[in-house]
Structure formats: C-alpha cells, structure tokens
Amino acid sequence: xxxxxxxxxxxxxxxxxxxxxxxxxxxxxxxxxxxxxxxxxxxxxxxxxxxxxxxxxxxxxxxxxxxxxxxxxxxxxxxxxxxxxxxxxxxxxxxxxxxxxxxxxxxxxxxxxxxxxxxxxxxxxxxxxxxxxxxxxxxxxxxxxxxxxxxxxxxxxxxxxxxxxxxxxxxxxxxxxxxxxxxxxxxxxxxxxxxxxxxxxxxxxxxxxxxxxxxxxxxxxxxxxxxxxxxxxxxxxxxxxxxxxxxxxxxxxxxxxxxxxxxxxxxxxxxxxxxxxxxxxxxxxxxxxxxxxxxxxxxxxxxxxxxxxxxxxxxxxxxxxxxxxxxxxxxxxxxxxxxxxxxxxxxxxxxxxxxxxxxxxxxxxxxxxxxxxxxxxxxxxxxxxxxxxxxxxxxxxxxxxxxxxxxxxxxxxxxxxxxxxxxxxxxxxxxxxxxxxxxxxxxxxxxxxxxxxxxxxxxxxxxxxxxxxxxxx
Length: 473
What we know:
The protein is mainly α. Helix content is 79%, strand content 0%. It has helices spanning 9-38, 40-61, 63-74, 79-108, 112-122, 125-130, 133-139, 142-163, 172-193, 202-211, 213-236, 239-264, 267-273, 278-305, 307-315, 323-340, 343-348, 352-377, 379-403, 414-430, 436-453. Helix 3 runs parallel beside helix 7 and helix 14 runs parallel beside helix 20 (414-430). The longest helix is centred in the first third of the chain and has 30 residues, at 9-38. It is globular, with a radius of gyration of 21 Å. Mean pLDDT is 84; it is low at 1-6 and 465-473.
C-alpha cells in the first residue's frame, strides 16, 4: 500500500479532529447509555477497572508510541519496519500486563463482580498493542487514524445499544469494547502492511522501548495524576462516588482527546524544526499554542458554565452530585491542553528525561493532595488535587522551555480568551431559558463570530507554505 507524506496542520487537524470528534462522540454516547442503564454503582466498577488497566495501557501507548512516531516522521520510508518492530514488543508487554492483572485480581480483589470486570477489562491491552495509529501520526496521515477510531467506537456503540440493557449485563460492556477495538486495530494494521507483513526484529523493538524509557515514565506519572484519584476513591469511598467521578471524567476525556489532536498535528513540524535550533521550534510552538488555545479555551469555558445541565443531559439526575468535581476537572483539562503543546518539543529535543522529572513532581503533589483532601472533601478534593498537579506541570514546563531558549509565546491566546469570555456571559444569561443544544449552538456561533471580526483564522490553523511529500512503498 502507498502512504503519502505529511500534510499541513489544518488538513491534519480536520482529518484527525473530525475523526476524533465522531469517534469519541459515538463512544461518549455509548458511555452515557451504559451509565444510565447500569446505574452509578455498576458504572463505578467499570471506572475502577479502567483506571487499574490504564497503567499498563500507558506503557503501550505513551512514550513507546511517541519515540516510534518521531522516528517515522524522520524516516517515513521505514514506517512498516518500525511498526513491525514496535508491535512485537508491545504485544509482549500486553501479555505480561494481562498476567499481572490476573494475579492481582485473584489475590487482592475480594469482590467476585469487581474481579470479573477487571479481568475482562484487561483484554483491551491486546488491541491496544496492535494499534498502529502512532505510525500514521508520524506520517502525518491522521485521517487514517480517524478511520480506526471511528470503527472502534461505532462498533462499541452498536454493541451497547443491542446487548446492554440493565445492571445484569455489566460483564458485556468490556467484551463489546474489546471487539470494537480489535476490529479497528486489525483494520489499521491491514491498511498499513497490506498483504505482506514485514518480519519484526525483537532487538530493534527493544531499542525503541529503551529509548522511550523516560517518555514512558513521564506518561505513567501522568496516568497517576489522572487515575490515582479514581483508585483512591474506590478504596476510601463508594462505587457510587467512583461512578459520579467517572461520569464527569468521561466528558473531560472527550475534551482531552480533542486537545491531543491539536498537539499531534504539529509533531512532524516540530520534529523537523528541531534540526534548525531553538528559533524555528519557537515559531512552530507558537502556532501550536495558538491552535490548541483557539480550540480548547471555548470548550473548557463553556463546559464550566454549563456543567450541571451537561451532566443532567448526558447521564441523568443520578449524577448531578458530580457537578462541582466536573467543573474542576474541566479546568484541569484546560491546563493539560496548554502544557501538552510542549510535549512535542521535549520529544524532538530528546529532553524526555527532563519532562519525566516535571511529571514526577506533579504526580507526587497529586498523591499527597489526594490523600489529604479526598477523606475530607470527597469528589471535590480529588478534582482539586488534579487541578493543582496540572498547574505545577504548566509552570515547570514553561520554565524548562525558557531555560532551553524556546519561547512559548502566548499572544495567540488573547483573542480566544476574549471571545470565550463573551461566550460565557451569553451562556450564563440564557441558562435556564433554553435547551443545552441551543445554548451550545448560540455560544459557538458567538465565539466564531468574534474571532472572525477580530482577525479571522488564527495563525495555528494556517497551512505551511511548503510541505514534504515523503512516500513509502
């Protein structure tokens, strides 16, 4: 199969972003249906299992994928070979992860229901290991990634609609998710390799794993920030509390996915700019921050303004008690989207060890605050801990970039902040007088209108004047 070279950030954002939106929207609808049909207690069991399995998932998708994707961006003609080498190691990690989770479930988990949910959820590590989305990302062919994402989530949604009706169908949820993700991973794998699979080299795959060490550690530490609160709530609180928190997080994950799409489209550009020194990287980073801010600021601001109505619309009145935590978690997503723009820079400059140190500081702060605040403030305490950790990472990342001579200029955020402020004012004025879909439409229209009359398309959306046309056969 012929895979063409990279496109500009606008094309890739539309390709990946639209695919992400469609896929995550389908997945989110499925999650909302599951939450309503199972109830907060059973939904909390799924959230707890997902958080536990997530640590092993990070080992497969974080630093390992980042390093390999960066290599693909540098050497697109070697994409298939790199994908084969990486996949054989990722599968080995997945099998080990399933083994560890199986032992942990049998030895440490007393509830038969929780144990079964955890074991079934652990199966998702296999399609995660087979997923080649990172290779397409390195090639700048993000529309291919979108195809896989949409396939997985649409199959998941269809399975939930057909097979999950009430709490007795709890075990069907992770099985349906596994089937959808396997189909998507298989599709992307087939499109990448065609009829001939490159013979993998275990030693080359292990070399990629070795080089991804600090980046993987950084993402594992990020996983602590995102999931330690869920684990601790599962231990110190009730399944219902975990269910409320998980419901709020599901909307936040949808927003975070969009943020990741805005970051991913600049990976090839920043990788190539690294060869020119700090000044070119500063220019690309400025555009990346502009694009991310333009997309994410209105999402976060609008979500905070409509937090209660959104939970009621998607999950029902049983989840209303999670409103305050939801608002705080949305703020954490805003901070994550901001410091997420710097990850490509640390990766391109081979500063993943430094990034891991920054995330370690955030993780330590998060753990300490969770242990102190959750027993006293419950869901809100968990969310405050997450916001605090993300803020520390933002400040530390900015300081580190300045020390490296890279200037993360923020002037591209001025217009989005101004337009979002006006949008929030409108939402608060109309809240309670119109439906949520109408409020979202009106807010989005006002935001886009203000951007249009104050300067048009932000810098981060503009296509580069020239681009690469690398191919692999």
